[in-house]
Amino acid sequence: MKLFGILGIAAAVFAAGATEVQVSNLTNGAKAGKIEINAKSRVGGNFAFTAIPASLAGETIVFAPRGVGNQPGASYTVTLDQAARVYLLVHNRGKVTIPEGWEKVAGTTAWGDSFSDTIYTKECAAGAVEVPVHDGKQGDNFGVPNALVVTADGKAADLTPTESILTAKSKQRAAGANFSFTELPDSLKNLPMVSVPRGPSNKPGIAYSFEIRNPAMIYILVQDRGTVTGLEGWTKQDEKAGWSVANGKYTDSIYAKSFPAGKVEIPAHDGKEGASFGVPNAAVVKYDK
After folding, report:
1. In terms of DSSP H, where are the helices of the chain?
2. Model pTM score
Protein backbone atom coordinates (compact mmCIF):
# COMPACT_ATOMS: atom_id res chain seq x y z
CA MET A 1 0.00 0.00 0.00
CA LYS A 2 1.40 3.39 -0.99
CA LEU A 3 1.78 6.04 1.70
CA PHE A 4 1.30 9.62 0.62
CA GLY A 5 1.09 13.11 2.00
CA ILE A 6 2.27 14.85 5.14
CA LEU A 7 0.66 12.11 7.22
CA GLY A 8 1.67 9.15 5.12
CA ILE A 9 -2.04 8.54 4.62
CA ALA A 10 -2.64 5.22 2.90
CA ALA A 11 -4.02 6.07 -0.53
CA ALA A 12 -6.33 3.22 -1.50
CA VAL A 13 -5.60 1.32 -4.69
CA PHE A 14 -9.00 -0.21 -5.30
CA ALA A 15 -8.45 -2.59 -8.21
CA ALA A 16 -6.36 -5.68 -7.48
CA GLY A 17 -2.96 -5.29 -9.06
CA ALA A 18 -3.79 -1.78 -10.26
CA THR A 19 -0.92 0.41 -11.38
CA GLU A 20 -0.78 4.18 -11.30
CA VAL A 21 -2.92 5.72 -14.03
CA GLN A 22 -0.87 7.53 -16.66
CA VAL A 23 -2.18 10.77 -18.19
CA SER A 24 -1.24 12.23 -21.58
CA ASN A 25 -2.42 14.47 -24.42
CA LEU A 26 -3.28 17.38 -22.14
CA THR A 27 -4.91 20.24 -24.04
CA ASN A 28 -5.40 23.98 -23.53
CA GLY A 29 -2.23 24.43 -21.50
CA ALA A 30 -3.15 21.86 -18.83
CA LYS A 31 -0.37 20.31 -16.73
CA ALA A 32 -0.06 17.27 -14.47
CA GLY A 33 1.33 17.24 -10.92
CA LYS A 34 0.59 15.87 -7.46
CA ILE A 35 -2.08 17.00 -5.05
CA GLU A 36 -0.29 17.71 -1.77
CA ILE A 37 -0.30 20.30 0.98
CA ASN A 38 1.70 23.38 -0.12
CA ALA A 39 1.87 22.14 -3.73
CA LYS A 40 1.08 24.89 -6.25
CA SER A 41 -0.95 22.48 -8.34
CA ARG A 42 -4.46 23.94 -8.21
CA VAL A 43 -3.97 26.32 -11.15
CA GLY A 44 -0.24 26.90 -10.88
CA GLY A 45 1.14 30.32 -10.01
CA ASN A 46 0.88 31.14 -6.32
CA PHE A 47 -2.26 29.11 -5.61
CA ALA A 48 -0.99 26.43 -3.19
CA PHE A 49 -3.17 23.86 -1.44
CA THR A 50 -3.66 24.43 2.29
CA ALA A 51 -6.18 21.61 2.90
CA ILE A 52 -7.00 18.49 0.88
CA PRO A 53 -8.89 15.22 1.36
CA ALA A 54 -6.36 12.98 3.11
CA SER A 55 -7.23 9.99 0.92
CA LEU A 56 -6.24 11.91 -2.24
CA ALA A 57 -2.84 13.11 -1.00
CA GLY A 58 -0.09 12.28 -3.48
CA GLU A 59 -2.41 11.33 -6.32
CA THR A 60 -2.09 12.77 -9.84
CA ILE A 61 -3.81 16.09 -10.44
CA VAL A 62 -4.35 17.76 -13.81
CA PHE A 63 -4.88 21.53 -13.78
CA ALA A 64 -5.08 24.43 -16.21
CA PRO A 65 -3.80 28.01 -15.92
CA ARG A 66 -6.02 30.66 -14.36
CA GLY A 67 -6.66 32.46 -17.62
CA VAL A 68 -8.47 35.79 -17.86
CA GLY A 69 -10.72 36.44 -14.85
CA ASN A 70 -13.59 37.91 -16.88
CA GLN A 71 -13.86 34.75 -18.99
CA PRO A 72 -15.16 31.30 -17.90
CA GLY A 73 -12.52 28.91 -16.53
CA ALA A 74 -11.31 26.98 -19.59
CA SER A 75 -12.29 23.41 -20.39
CA TYR A 76 -9.64 20.91 -21.51
CA THR A 77 -9.14 17.20 -22.13
CA VAL A 78 -6.82 14.57 -20.70
CA THR A 79 -6.23 11.02 -21.91
CA LEU A 80 -6.12 8.10 -19.41
CA ASP A 81 -4.20 4.92 -20.19
CA GLN A 82 -6.65 2.80 -18.18
CA ALA A 83 -9.99 3.04 -16.42
CA ALA A 84 -9.89 5.45 -13.49
CA ARG A 85 -11.89 7.02 -10.70
CA VAL A 86 -11.59 10.78 -11.15
CA TYR A 87 -12.49 13.70 -8.89
CA LEU A 88 -13.45 17.12 -10.23
CA LEU A 89 -12.42 20.11 -8.08
CA VAL A 90 -14.80 22.98 -8.77
CA HIS A 91 -13.99 26.45 -7.44
CA ASN A 92 -16.76 27.73 -5.16
CA ARG A 93 -17.64 30.81 -7.16
CA GLY A 94 -21.08 31.53 -8.57
CA LYS A 95 -23.52 28.97 -9.95
CA VAL A 96 -21.62 26.37 -11.95
CA THR A 97 -23.06 24.09 -14.64
CA ILE A 98 -22.01 20.49 -13.86
CA PRO A 99 -22.57 18.04 -16.75
CA GLU A 100 -24.57 14.87 -16.18
CA GLY A 101 -22.66 11.87 -14.85
CA TRP A 102 -20.78 13.70 -12.09
CA GLU A 103 -21.77 12.86 -8.50
CA LYS A 104 -21.18 15.38 -5.72
CA VAL A 105 -19.24 13.91 -2.78
CA ALA A 106 -18.41 15.06 0.74
CA GLY A 107 -14.93 16.48 0.97
CA THR A 108 -13.15 19.79 0.90
CA THR A 109 -10.08 21.56 -0.39
CA ALA A 110 -8.64 24.95 0.51
CA TRP A 111 -6.08 26.87 -1.52
CA GLY A 112 -4.64 30.34 -1.90
CA ASP A 113 -5.69 32.78 0.80
CA SER A 114 -9.37 31.91 1.11
CA PHE A 115 -10.53 29.76 -1.79
CA SER A 116 -12.13 26.31 -1.76
CA ASP A 117 -13.64 23.67 -4.05
CA THR A 118 -16.72 21.49 -4.21
CA ILE A 119 -15.81 17.95 -5.28
CA TYR A 120 -17.55 15.67 -7.79
CA THR A 121 -16.60 12.17 -8.94
CA LYS A 122 -17.23 9.57 -11.62
CA GLU A 123 -15.66 6.46 -13.12
CA CYS A 124 -14.07 6.93 -16.52
CA ALA A 125 -12.99 4.40 -19.14
CA ALA A 126 -9.54 4.55 -20.70
CA GLY A 127 -9.31 7.33 -23.29
CA ALA A 128 -10.08 11.01 -23.44
CA VAL A 129 -11.85 12.73 -20.54
CA GLU A 130 -13.25 16.23 -20.91
CA VAL A 131 -12.88 18.54 -17.94
CA PRO A 132 -15.88 20.91 -18.21
CA VAL A 133 -15.77 24.69 -18.30
CA HIS A 134 -16.27 26.66 -15.06
CA ASP A 135 -19.04 29.11 -15.89
CA GLY A 136 -19.79 30.27 -12.34
CA LYS A 137 -19.35 34.01 -11.84
CA GLN A 138 -19.23 36.37 -8.89
CA GLY A 139 -19.03 40.07 -9.64
CA ASP A 140 -16.80 40.47 -12.69
CA ASN A 141 -14.82 37.27 -12.15
CA PHE A 142 -15.49 33.70 -13.18
CA GLY A 143 -14.12 30.74 -11.25
CA VAL A 144 -10.73 29.25 -12.08
CA PRO A 145 -10.63 26.20 -14.35
CA ASN A 146 -11.68 22.93 -12.76
CA ALA A 147 -8.92 20.50 -11.71
CA LEU A 148 -9.04 16.72 -12.12
CA VAL A 149 -7.61 14.25 -9.58
CA VAL A 150 -6.99 10.79 -11.05
CA THR A 151 -6.96 7.57 -8.99
CA ALA A 152 -7.18 3.83 -9.68
CA ASP A 153 -10.57 2.60 -10.80
CA GLY A 154 -13.04 1.64 -8.08
CA LYS A 155 -15.62 2.99 -5.67
CA ALA A 156 -15.33 6.54 -4.41
CA ALA A 157 -12.88 7.03 -1.54
CA ASP A 158 -13.88 8.50 1.81
CA LEU A 159 -12.93 12.16 1.40
CA THR A 160 -14.16 13.22 4.84
CA PRO A 161 -10.85 13.35 6.78
CA THR A 162 -9.08 16.51 5.64
CA GLU A 163 -5.33 17.00 5.83
CA SER A 164 -3.81 20.41 6.63
CA ILE A 165 -1.08 22.09 8.68
CA LEU A 166 -1.98 23.53 12.09
CA THR A 167 -1.02 27.20 12.08
CA ALA A 168 -2.29 30.35 13.71
CA LYS A 169 -4.02 31.19 10.42
CA SER A 170 -5.71 27.81 10.01
CA LYS A 171 -9.47 27.74 9.53
CA GLN A 172 -9.68 23.94 9.49
CA ARG A 173 -10.74 23.24 13.08
CA ALA A 174 -13.73 21.66 11.40
CA ALA A 175 -13.02 20.93 7.74
CA GLY A 176 -14.60 23.46 5.42
CA ALA A 177 -16.37 25.29 8.25
CA ASN A 178 -14.25 28.46 8.48
CA PHE A 179 -13.59 27.97 12.20
CA SER A 180 -10.53 30.10 12.93
CA PHE A 181 -7.96 29.29 15.61
CA THR A 182 -7.34 32.04 18.16
CA GLU A 183 -5.08 30.19 20.62
CA LEU A 184 -2.62 27.35 20.06
CA PRO A 185 0.07 25.70 22.17
CA ASP A 186 3.49 26.36 20.63
CA SER A 187 4.20 22.63 20.84
CA LEU A 188 1.48 21.87 18.26
CA LYS A 189 2.06 24.68 15.78
CA ASN A 190 3.07 23.73 12.22
CA LEU A 191 2.28 20.03 12.74
CA PRO A 192 0.06 17.94 10.43
CA MET A 193 -3.62 18.01 11.37
CA VAL A 194 -6.64 15.97 10.35
CA SER A 195 -10.16 17.32 10.77
CA VAL A 196 -13.64 16.50 9.48
CA PRO A 197 -16.74 18.60 8.73
CA ARG A 198 -18.90 19.95 11.54
CA GLY A 199 -21.92 17.83 10.66
CA PRO A 200 -25.39 18.34 12.18
CA SER A 201 -25.12 20.04 15.58
CA ASN A 202 -27.93 17.86 16.98
CA LYS A 203 -25.82 14.71 16.47
CA PRO A 204 -22.50 13.73 18.08
CA GLY A 205 -19.34 14.88 16.31
CA ILE A 206 -18.40 11.87 14.19
CA ALA A 207 -15.66 9.35 14.86
CA TYR A 208 -13.19 8.71 12.03
CA SER A 209 -9.85 7.07 11.26
CA PHE A 210 -6.70 7.56 9.19
CA GLU A 211 -3.30 5.91 8.72
CA ILE A 212 0.15 7.11 9.80
CA ARG A 213 3.44 5.99 8.28
CA ASN A 214 5.52 5.89 11.49
CA PRO A 215 4.87 5.76 15.25
CA ALA A 216 3.55 9.10 16.51
CA MET A 217 1.96 10.92 19.40
CA ILE A 218 -1.56 11.91 18.44
CA TYR A 219 -3.12 14.94 20.11
CA ILE A 220 -6.86 15.44 19.84
CA LEU A 221 -8.61 18.78 20.25
CA VAL A 222 -11.85 18.14 22.14
CA GLN A 223 -14.34 20.98 22.35
CA ASP A 224 -15.27 21.92 25.92
CA ARG A 225 -18.95 21.09 25.60
CA GLY A 226 -20.81 18.69 27.87
CA THR A 227 -19.41 15.41 29.22
CA VAL A 228 -17.41 13.52 26.61
CA THR A 229 -17.01 9.74 26.79
CA GLY A 230 -14.74 7.39 24.82
CA LEU A 231 -11.49 9.01 25.94
CA GLU A 232 -10.12 5.97 27.75
CA GLY A 233 -6.40 5.63 27.04
CA TRP A 234 -6.05 9.31 26.19
CA THR A 235 -4.11 11.54 28.62
CA LYS A 236 -5.37 15.07 29.25
CA GLN A 237 -2.79 17.80 28.73
CA ASP A 238 -2.39 21.06 30.65
CA GLU A 239 -2.68 23.31 27.57
CA LYS A 240 -5.76 24.32 25.60
CA ALA A 241 -6.61 25.55 22.11
CA GLY A 242 -9.10 28.24 21.21
CA TRP A 243 -11.11 29.04 18.08
CA SER A 244 -13.98 31.23 16.95
CA VAL A 245 -16.82 31.28 14.45
CA ALA A 246 -19.11 34.26 13.83
CA ASN A 247 -19.50 35.91 17.26
CA GLY A 248 -18.82 32.74 19.24
CA LYS A 249 -15.55 31.85 20.98
CA TYR A 250 -14.80 28.28 22.04
CA THR A 251 -12.04 26.27 23.69
CA ASP A 252 -10.67 22.75 23.31
CA SER A 253 -9.15 20.49 25.89
CA ILE A 254 -6.20 18.55 24.52
CA TYR A 255 -5.60 14.82 24.99
CA ALA A 256 -2.65 12.70 23.84
CA LYS A 257 -2.11 9.05 23.00
CA SER A 258 0.83 7.18 21.44
CA PHE A 259 0.13 5.11 18.30
CA PRO A 260 2.29 2.69 16.31
CA ALA A 261 2.42 3.00 12.53
CA GLY A 262 -0.93 2.10 11.01
CA LYS A 263 -4.52 2.97 11.75
CA VAL A 264 -5.45 5.80 14.13
CA GLU A 265 -9.00 5.83 15.51
CA ILE A 266 -10.38 9.22 16.59
CA PRO A 267 -13.34 8.96 18.99
CA ALA A 268 -16.69 10.70 18.54
CA HIS A 269 -17.55 13.85 20.51
CA ASP A 270 -20.74 12.97 22.39
CA GLY A 271 -20.68 15.88 24.83
CA LYS A 272 -23.82 18.03 24.66
CA GLU A 273 -25.06 21.37 25.98
CA GLY A 274 -28.65 22.25 25.27
CA ALA A 275 -29.53 20.94 21.83
CA SER A 276 -25.97 21.03 20.47
CA PHE A 277 -23.22 18.41 20.57
CA GLY A 278 -19.56 19.32 20.32
CA VAL A 279 -17.80 19.59 16.97
CA PRO A 280 -15.81 16.52 15.89
CA ASN A 281 -12.39 16.16 17.48
CA ALA A 282 -9.44 17.32 15.38
CA ALA A 283 -6.21 15.27 15.43
CA VAL A 284 -2.66 16.63 15.41
CA VAL A 285 0.21 14.29 14.50
CA LYS A 286 3.67 14.53 16.07
CA TYR A 287 5.94 11.79 14.75
CA ASP A 288 8.41 10.14 17.12
CA LYS A 289 12.00 11.15 16.45
Report:
1. none
2. 0.90
